[in-house]
Amino acid sequence: MLALSRKKNEALVINNNIEVTVLEIKGEQVKLGISAPREVPVYRKEVYVQIQASNQEAVSMDGMDALKELLG
Length: 72
Known about the structure:
Elements: E1 11-14, E2 18-26, E3 29-35, H1 45-58, H2 61-71
Antiparallel strand pairs: 1-2, 2-3
């Protein structure tokens, strides 16, 4: 993991097309602005984890059994 220090209104660039800017700092909360191409999905980690869990559930054994039933 790369750890960087940034102050308000300072930014970092990822892969030449994603910019993350520190917009505001209040106590222990930091507000970030993310500028990325539309085709690059950006999620809060807790939402991303839920999406991954749902995807895993969709391909679970129940899903495989349903697919087998459809295919005969």
